[in-house]
Specification:
By secondary structure, this protein is α+β, with helices and mostly antiparallel strands. Among the domains are: 105 residues, Helix Hairpins (Orthogonal Bundle); 73 residues, HSP40/DNAj peptide-binding domain (Sandwich); 34 residues. 27% of the residues lie in helices and 26% in strands. It contains ten helices and 17 strands. Helix 2 packs antiparallel against helix 3 and helix 3 crosses helix 5. The chain is elongated and about 110 Å long. The relative contact order is 0.09.
């Protein structure tokens, strides 16, 4: 007993730690040293067993009280009332681990792959999902389009139909694990299961692998896929294609393919949801006298009536000229048109003379904004003069 480490030290908590803190500390240490995460590492295996032993005691209020009073002697034969070691109903370290993490845990899910967990792996397994990022032009996203893409995927081997064994032969039950996919490890009062090193958890071995796939049951191929881009997709939109992902293992179904769209910007049209925005130049004489202009839209040219006296920056809405929402009944958004008054340039001498003759007939009261600015400035200067006089 003298060489055993203190249970609180093993879990990295002090004696005043709450039950939740002790449980949290055990989860952290157990996940770090779990044998499935550290295959072949004897030191990690020992640390995992040590942490499980510590939690077996500190996670039980009665045992914890005995330990706090008598230390490790509480669990020695004839010491402190706990003869014969542990009595909490756990068969091994993995039972303790499963009790803490919940029944039916899968070590693959916890550690992000690898290892084996406590589930057999020799049954059909669904193939992995795939992601394909697709850049599309603004027009394709707004109006819809079709594309043919090429991507590498795992297809079920045609020679062995996914079994991994050469045609005419069959798999054998693994002699090491007897088909369980797992073997027991450890010793003494703490034991745990780990992935069978012979079959890798499959429970079966292949003595005569398929010549085409070398026993994998699937072959990597470059596959062409016709894709319909629905109208209205935005950057970040995802399209799910069931069964177009990686082939399943041991006769399992294929995974899904997820297309993630990335829409390129357009030099004229801007988008917000189903609405489109653009800036359109309006000749100054139309803005002054009123008239009609043609505005480019996603669906062709559209006529826009410009009232007399229209100012730069005014926004007009063209309903039904926006992006089509193919996913929700085919409705369309609006196109919002902001006008920008354009003045003529590169006038000839004769044209400038005629323009000057026209402008000479104009007065400040013809320009509402200018008149308003002048009145505001006049009030400011009057107030300024009064302040200077008073001082």
């Amino acid at each position: 007993m003298a060489d055993k480490r203190d249970y609180y030290e093993i879990l990295g908590v002090d004696k005043s730690a709450s039950d939740d803190q002790i449980k949290k500390a055990y989860r952290k240490v157990a996940m770090k040293f779990h044998p499935d995460r550290n295959p072949g590492d004897a030191a990690a295996e020992e640390s995992f067993k040590e942490a499980s032993e510590a939690y077996e005691v500190l996670g039980d209020s009665d045992k914890k009280a005995r330990y706090d009073q008598f230390g490790h002697q509480a669990f020695a034969p004839g010491g402190g009332g706990f003869g014969g070691g542990f009595g909490g109903g756990f068969h091994d370290a993995s039972d303790i681990f499963e009790q803490v993490f919940g029944g039916g845990f899968n070590i693959n899910d916890l550690f992000g792959g690898g290892g084996g967990g406590r589930r057999r792996r020799n049954g059909p397994a669904r193939g992995s999902d795939l992601r394909y990022d697709l850049d599309v032009d603004f027009e394709e996203a707004a109006l819809g389009s079709h594309r043919t893409i090429t991507l590498p995927v795992s297809e079920t081997c045609g020679r062995c139909t996914g079994s991994g064994a050469e045609p005419g032969t069959s798999k054998n039950t693994c002699p090491t694990c007897g088909g369980r996919g797992q073997v027991n490890a450890g010793g003494g009062f703490i034991q745990f299961s780990q992935t069978c090193p012979t079959c890798g958890g499959a429970g079966e071995t292949i003595s005569n692998p398929c010549a085409a796939c070398n026993g994998a049951g699937s072959i990597k191929e470059r596959k062409k896929l016709k894709l319909r881009i629905p109208a209205g997709v935005e950057s970040g939109s995802r399209q799910r294609l069931p069964g177009k992902g990686e082939a399943g293992a041991r006769g399992g179904p294929a995974g899904d393919l997820f297309i993630v769209f990335h829409v390129r910007d357009h030099e004229f049209f801007k988008r917000n949801g189903l609405d489109v925005y653009c800036e359109v130049p309006v000749p100054f004489h139309i803005a002054m006298l009123g008239g009609e202009i043609e505005v480019p839209t996603l669906h062709g040219g559209a006529k826009l009536k410009v009232p007399a006296g229209t100012e730069s920056g005014k926004i007009f809405r063209l309903r039904g000229q926006g992006v089509m929402d193919a996913a929700h009944g085919g409705g369309k958004g609006s196109q919002n048109v902001m006008v920008s008054i354009e003045v003529p340039s590169r006038l000839s001498g004769k044209e400038k003379k005629a323009m000057k003759a026209l402008c000479d007939q104009l007065h400040d009261n013809h320009f509402e904004l200018t008149s308003k600015m002048n009145k505001t400035a006049q009030k400011f200067y009057e107030r300024k003069r009064k302040l200077e006089t008073d001082s």
